TrEMBL record, chain A:
Bias-annotated ranges (Polar residues): 11-20
Protein name per the record: Aminotransferase class I/classII large domain-containing protein
Transmembrane segments: 32-52
GO molecular function terms noted in the UniProt entry: aromatic-amino-acid transaminase activity; L-aspartate:2-oxoglutarate aminotransferase activity; pyridoxal phosphate binding
All residue ranges annotated as the Aminotransferase class I/classII large domain in the record: 141-520
PANTHER family: AMINOTRANSFERASE ACS12-RELATED, BIFUNCTIONAL ASPARTATE AMINOTRANSFERASE AND GLUTAMATE/ASPARTATE-PREPHENATE AMINOTRANSFERASE-RELATED
CDD domains linked to this entry: AAT_like (cd00609)
Keywords: Membrane, Pyridoxal phosphate, Transmembrane, Transmembrane helix
A Pfam family it matches: Aminotran_1_2
Composition bias, Basic and acidic residues: 1-10
TrEMBL record, chain B:
Enzyme class: lyase
GO biological process, one term: ethylene biosynthetic process
Domain Aminotransferase class I/classII large, chain residue ranges per copy: 49-428
Organism for this UniProt entry: Salix udensis
Protein name: 1-aminocyclopropane-1-carboxylate synthase
Taxonomic lineage from the root: Eukaryota, Viridiplantae, Streptophyta, Embryophyta, Tracheophyta
SUPFAM superfamilies named in the record: PLP-dependent transferases
GO molecular function: 1-aminocyclopropane-1-carboxylate synthase activity; pyridoxal phosphate binding; transaminase activity
Length: 531, 446
C-alpha cells in the first residue's frame, strides 16, 4: 500500500527504512569484523533490520500525515489531487487512537477525492497559466468556465456612476451604515426580493409575474441547491437527473446531504433532450435497488448542452412527478441567456395550468444573467410554504452580504438599465455563439443546435483515438496541454456518449476566436492523422 | 378565481421536520415578544427593550467616519479595472488582500502576541457557517463535540442540525466562576464513551458567551493537554476577542501554540468573525483559521456553500489593513464596552443584583437565583416570563444556554443607546423594589 503523499513532505517510511538500515549495517559490519566473523557480522544487522521493519510496519498505517518537522504556519496546503485512490483511505482517515495524527471526518476525505475530476483539474491549470492577449499569449485559454464577460462594460459603467450612493445610505448629510451593518433577515432584504422578482419576470419574457414572498435568497446558487436537497430528501435518498449535467451538481447535491444523483441518460439521437420513458426507466430501476427517489433535478436552459425544454416535455415531467408524488427542482439560472428566437417556457409559466405546485421549486441566481458571480446571489423560488419556511431558516449558513444586497437593489430597480442590459446581453451572446460554432464547423466539428447558455456542446468523437472515456480524456489532455485550451469533457458531465465536449465562449472576445480555432486545429489535425 | 386549498401532499425530509433548529426555545420566544412590541425612545417608550441580542452598536460612528474619509475604499470610481476582477471573483480562496487584512487585524487584537498566516485563513459567510463547516469536517454523524456549559444557544442548531453531530456538555458551575475543570472534561468524555459516542473535539468560546469572561491561560493549557491525550480537536471560537475590556486580559489559544513552538497544533482551529468586534453582522464575514493543512484545504472547498461577497471583501480589505484605523478602533471599542459594562454592573448592584465578574463581550451574566420561587428550570422560566411581561425587557435565561444552575441570565448591553440602557436599569430597579415590597407585605408560605 502506497503512502498518501503531500507535495511538501517526503514519503516517510520506504526510503527512510533503506537508508536507516544501511546506516546500521555498515558500522556494525566494521564492529563484528574482528570477532565472530562473517556470520555474526551479517546476522546481527539482519536481525536488527528485521526488527526495525516490524516496528515501522506497525506504525505505517498511522503515520500518513505525521510531518518530520513541526507544522510551520506558513506551509502551503498540500495538493490533495495526488492522493491515491485506495479504498482503505476512508479507514485511514477515520482511525482515532492515541497514536498518529488527529483525524478528520469521512465527509472531509470525500472532498479530498473530488478534485480528480477533469472539470476541476482544468480550472486549476488555467488559474496558474491564464491566457492574456498581451501579457501571456501562450497561456491556456479558458473555455471551461461558464462565466459571462461580454457585458461587463455596461455593468462597470453603471457601478462607476452609481455605486457609492447605492451601497451606503445617507442620513441627512452624513453616511449611515445602519442599514447595512446590523443583522438583516438571513433570507434577504425584502426590497431585494421584490427587485429580483421583477428581474426574473423580465428575464422570463414577462409572461408571469413572480411573488417576492415566495423567494428565499442565498449566497449563490450553490447553497440554494444544497438547501433544497436538505429540505426535500434524506440521507440515502436520490434525485433523478438527466445527463449530461453540470459537474458542480455532484458536489452541491451529494457532498454534505448524502443524497444520491441517479443519471437519466439522454442521447444525441434525441438532441440530448430528456424523454419521460427514460425517466420512468430510471425511476423503476432505483426502486428495484431499494433507493427512494424524492425528486427530479432539471436545468432549463440546460447545461452543458444549451437546450431549452419544449413545453410538452415540461408538461410531461410535471405529470410524471405528480404520478410518483415526487418533487421537481428546476434550475433556470441561464434563463436570461436565451439568444435564439425559440420559445423559452419557464416553470412558473407552465404552472399556470392545473398542477400541484407544492412539489415545484426553482433555482435562480445573478452569476450568469447579471455577470456578478463574485457577489454571491442565489434564489430559491418555491410554491411550498413549508419548504420556504425551512429554507429561510437554513439561509443563516449562507446569507448574502448586506452591502451587496443594497447595491443590487439599486441596480435592479434601474429598469431602464436592466432592459437595455438584457437585450444587449442576448445580442452579444448570440454573435459570439454564431462565430464560435462556425469556427468549429470549419474544423469539421459539429455542435448540437442550442438556443441558450454560454457554451456549445461539440462533437469531437471523430478525433478520439479509442471510442470510450479513455480516448475522450486523452483528447481532453491534448487540448489542455498541447493546444492549451481548457474545455470540459463529456465524461465529467456524465454523458453516456464519449467524445462530446463543452466549450464556453463568453469569456472570449470575438477576436480571440481565430486564436482558439488555430490551436484546436493543431490538435485536430494530429488526431485525424492518427486515427 | 378558484379557492386554493393548501394540501401539502408531497413529503419533506427528516431535517425539515426535526426540532434541532431549536427555534422553540425561550431564547427565540423572547425575540418574538420584542418584535411585536419593540421599544423606541420616542414612539414606543413602554415597549420591550431587547437585551437578548448580542450586537455591538457602540462604535458605529468610527466606521462611518472611516467610510466617509476613505470613499475610494467603497467605490471603484478610480479603480474601475479592479471592479471586473472583483465582480467575477468567486474563488473560494478569497481575495488575498482581504485575507491579509484579516490576519493583520487578528494579530492587532491579540496585541501582536500571535502571528497569523493569511494562507491559513478560510473565509465563510459568518461565524455561524464557520462553526457548522468545521463540524462537518471534524466529525461524522452521531459523533460528538464536547462543549462547556453554559454555551451560546445557537450552537444547538449550528453544530447539530444538518451535520447530525451531537453536543455532550462539559458541566461548569458557579463554585469556581463557571471555569472548565479537568474533572468536568473527563466526566463528559466518559459519559460519551458510556453512550458509545465517539468524541471528536472540544469546542470552547473564548471570551465566553454567555459568561462575558475570558478563559484563563492555565485552563487553556489544560484543555490543550486533555485534547492531546484523547487525540481530539480543539475549536476555539474567539469571536469576542476584540471585545475584551482590556487587551492584556485575553489569552488566545494562538498565543499558547506559539509559545509551544506549534508542536501538536494541527488539532487546533480558531473561528473568528467581524459581527461582534466590528459590529458588522449584516456583512456576513467569518473565518476559520486552522493549523491543520488538510482542514484548511477541505474547509476551503466546502466554503463554496458560504462565500463572502467579493465586493464586501474588497470594501473591508482596505479598512482592516489601515493600521491607524484598526488601532484606534480596537482601543476605543474596548473603552466604550468597558464603560457600558461598568454602567450596567453598577446599575444592577444598586438594584441588589449580583453578576459574574466579567471582562469581555457584549453582555453580563446576571445571578437572579435568590429571586426564584423554586430553584428549578421551571422556576427560572417563570421568572423570565414575568421579567419579559412586567419589566418588559428580553433577557436570555440560563437554561436556554444549558446552564446547570437555575437562575442565571445573560443581559446584553451594547445593542442600544446609553439612555435606553438607563431606562432598562430603572425598570429593573423598580421591579426589584416592587418585589421587596411584595415580600414584606406577604411573606412566603412555608
Amino acid at each position: 500500500m502506497t503512502q498518501p503523499q503531500t507535495r511538501d513532505e517526503q514519503p516517510t517510511n520506504p526510503t527512510r527504512q533503506k537508508s536507516t538500515g544501511m546506516r546500521l549495517i555498515v558500522p556494525l559490519q566494521g564492529i563484528v569484523q574482528g570477532r565472530g566473523g562473517l556470520i555474526l557480522g551479517t546476522l546481527i544487522p539482519c536481525a536488527l533490520f528485521y526488527f526495525f521493519q516490524l516496528y515501522t510496519k506497525r506504525n505505517r498505517g498511522n503515520s500518513s500525515n505525521t510531518p518530520s518537522n513541526p507544522p510551520s504556519p506558513s506551509s502551503s496546503s498540500p495538493n490533495l489531487a495526488e492522493l491515491p485512490r485506495t479504498s482503505s483511505r476512508l479507514s485511514l482517515f477515520s482511525r482515532v487512537g492515541s497514536s498518529g495524527p488527529v483525524s478528520v471526518s469521512g465527509r472531509a476525505s470525500l472532498i479530498a477525492r473530488e478534485n480528480d475530476s477533469p472539470y476541476y483539474i482544468g480550472l486549476e491549470k488555467v488559474s496558474k497559466d491564464p491566457y492574456d492577449k498581451e501579457r501571456n499569449p501562450d497561456g491556456i485559454i479558458q473555455l471551461g468556465l461558464s462565466e459571462n464577460r461580454l457585458c461587463f462594460d455596461l455593468i462597470e459603467k453603471w457601478m462607476v456612476e452609481n455605486v457609492r450612493e447605492a451601497m451606503v445610505g445617507r442620513d441627512g448629510e452624513h453616511l449611515s451604515i445602519n442599514g447595512i451593518a446590523a443583522y438583516q433577515p438571513f433570507d434577504g432584504l425584502m426590497e431585494l426580493k421584490v427587485a429580483l422578482a421583477g428581474f426574473m419576470s423580465q428575464v422570463m419574457r414577462k409572461v408571469v409575474s413572480l411573488d417576492p414572498s415566495q423567494i428565499v435568497l442565498t449566497a449563490g446558487a450553490t447553497p440554494a441547491i444544497e438547501i433544497l436537497c436538505f429540505c426535500l430528501a434524506d440521507h440515502g435518498n436520490a434525485f433523478l437527473i438527466p445527463t449530461p449535467y453540470y459537474p458542480g451538481f455532484d458536489r452541491d447535491v451529494r457532498l454534505r446531504t448524502g443524497v444520491e444523483l441517479i443519471p437519466v441518460h439522454c442521447r444525441s439521437a434525441d438532441n440530448f433532450l430528456l424523454s419521460v420513458t427514460a425517466l420512468e426507466q430510471a425511476y423503476n430501476q432505483a426502486r428495484k435497488r431499494g433507493v427512494r427517489v424524492r425528486g427530479i433535478l432539471i436545468s432549463n436552459p440546460s447545461n452543458p448542452v444549451g437546450n431549452i425544454l419544449p413545453r410538452e416535455t415540461l408538461h410531461n415531467i410535471l405529470v410524471f412527478a405528480q404520478e410518483k408524488n415526487i418533487h421537481i427542482i428546476c434550475d433556470e439560472i441561464f434563463a436570461g441567456s436565451v439568444y435564439r428566437g425559440e420559445e423559452f417556457v419557464s416553470m412558473p409559466e407552465i404552472l399556470m395550468e392545473e398542477f400541484d405546485k407544492n412539489r415545484v421549486h426553482i433555482i435562480y441566481g445573478l452569476s450568469k444573467d447579471l455577470c456578478l458571480p463574485g457577489f454571491r446571489v442565489g434564489v430559491i423560488y418555491s410554491y411550498n410554504k413549508n419548504v420556504l419556511a425551512l429554507a429561510k431558516r437554513l439561509t443563516r449558513f449562507s446569507s448574502i452580504s448586506a452591502p451587496s444586497q443594497r447595491l443590487l437593489i439599486s441596480m435592479l430597480s434601474d429598469t431602464k438599465f436592466i432592459e437595455e442590459f438584457i437585450k444587449t446581453n442576448k445580442q452579444r451572446i448570440q454573435k459570439l455563439h454564431h462565430s464560435f460554432v462556425d469556427g468549429l464547423k470549419q474544423l469539421g466539428i459539429q455542435c448540437i443546435e442550442s438556443s441558450a447558455g454560454f457554451y456549445c456542446w461539440a462533437n469531437m468523437s471523430e478525433l478520439i483515438s479509442s471510442y470510450g472515456e479513455k480516448g475522450e480524456l486523452d483528447l481532453w489532455d491534448k487540448l489542455l496541454n498541447i493546444a492549451k485550451v481548457n474545455v470540459t469533457p463529456g465524461s465529467a458531465c456524465h454523458c453516456i456518449e464519449p467524445g462530446w465536449f463543452r466549450c464556453c465562449f463568453t469569456t472570449l472576445a470575438l477576436e480571440d476566436i481565430p486564436v482558439v480555432m488555430k490551436r484546436i486545429r493543431k490538435v485536430a489535425e494530429t488526431c485525424k492523422s492518427l486515427s | 378565481m378558484a379557492i386554493e386549498i393548501e394540501q401539502p401532499t408531497v413529503e419533506l425530509s427528516k431535517v425539515a421536520v426535526s426540532e434541532t433548529h431549536g427555534e422553540d426555545s425561550p431564547y427565540f420566544a423572547g425575540w418574538k415578544a420584542h418584535d411585536e412590541d419593540p421599544y423606541d425612545e420616542s414612539s414606543n417608550s413602554s415597549g420591550v427593550i431587547q437585551m437578548g441580542l448580542a450586537e455591538n452598536q457602540v462604535s458605529f460612528d468610527l466606521l462611518e467616519e472611516y467610510l466617509e474619509q476613505n470613499s475610494e475604499a467603497s467605490s471603484w470610481a478610480e479603480g474601475a479595472p479592479g471592479f471586473r476582477e472583483n465582480a467575477l471573483f468567486q474563488d473560494y480562496h478569497g481575495l488575498k488582500s482581504f485575507r491579509q487584512a484579516m490576519a493583520s487585524f487578528m494579530e492587532k487584537i491579540r496585541g501582536g502576541r500571535a502571528k497569523f498566516d493569511p494562507d491559513r485563513i478560510v473565509l465563510t459567510a459568518g461565524a455561524t457557517a464557520a462553526n457548522e463547516l468545521l463540524t462537518f469536517i471534524l466529525a461524522d454523524p452521531d459523533d460528538a463535540l464536547l462543549v462547556p456549559t453554559p454555551y451560546y444557544p445557537g450552537f444547538d442548531r449550528d453544530l447539530r442540525w444538518r451535520t447530525g453531530v451531537r453536543i455532550v456538555p462539559i458541566h461548569c458551575d458557579s463554585s469556581n466562576n463557571f471555569q472548565v475543570t479537568l474533572e468536568a472534561m473527563e466526566a463528559a468524555y466518559m459519559h460519551a464513551v458510556a453512550m458509545n459516542i465517539k468524541v471528536r473535539g472540544v469546542l470552547i468560546t473564548n471570551p465566553s458567551n454567555p459568561l462575558g469572561a475570558t478563559i484563563q491561560r492555565s485552563v487553556l493549557e489544560e484543555i490543550l493537554d486533555f485534547a492531546k491525550r484523547k487525540n481530539i480537536h480543539v475549536v476555539s471560537d474567539e469571536i469576542y476577542s476584540g471585545s475584551t475590556f482590556s487587551s492584556s486580559e485575553f489569552v488566545s489559544i494562538a498565543e499558547i501554540l506559539e509559545a509551544r513552538g506549534y508542536k501538536d497544533s494541527e488539532r487546533v482551529h480558531i473561528v473568528y468573525s467581524l459581527s461582534k468586534d466590528l459590529g458588522l453582522p449584516g456583512f456576513r464575514v467569518g473565518t476559520i483559521y486552522s493549523y491543520n493543512d488538510k482542514v484548511v484545504t477541505t474547509a476551503r472547498r466546502m466554503s463554496s456553500f458560504s462565500l463572502i461577497s467579493s465586493q464586501t471583501q474588497h470594501l473591508l480589505a482596505s479598512m482592516l489593513s489601515d493600521k491607524k484605523f484598526t488601532e484606534k478602533y480596537i482601543k476605543t471599542n474596548r473603552e466604550r464596552l468597558r464603560k457600558r459594562y461598568e454602567m450596567i454592573i453598577q446599575g444592577l448592584k444598586t438594584a441588589g443584583i449580583e453578576c459574574l465578574k466579567g471582562n469581555a463581550g457584549l453582555f453580563c451574566w446576571m445571578n437572579l437565583s435568590p429571586l426564584l420561587e423554586t430553584p428549578t428550570r421551571e422556576g427560572e422560566l417563570a421568572l423570565w416570563k414575568s421579567i419579559l411581561h412586567e419589566v418588559k425587557i428580553n433577557i436570555s435565561p440560563g437554561s436556554s444556554c444549558h446552564c446547570s444552575e437555575p437562575g442565571w441570565f445573560r443581559v446584553c448591553f451594547a445593542n442600544m443607546s446609553e439612555p435606553t440602557l438607563d431606562v432598562a436599569l430603572k425598570r429593573i430597579h423598580s421591579f426589584m423594589d416592587q418585589r421587596k415590597t411584595d415580600a414584606i407585605q406577604s411573606p412566603p408560605q412555608q
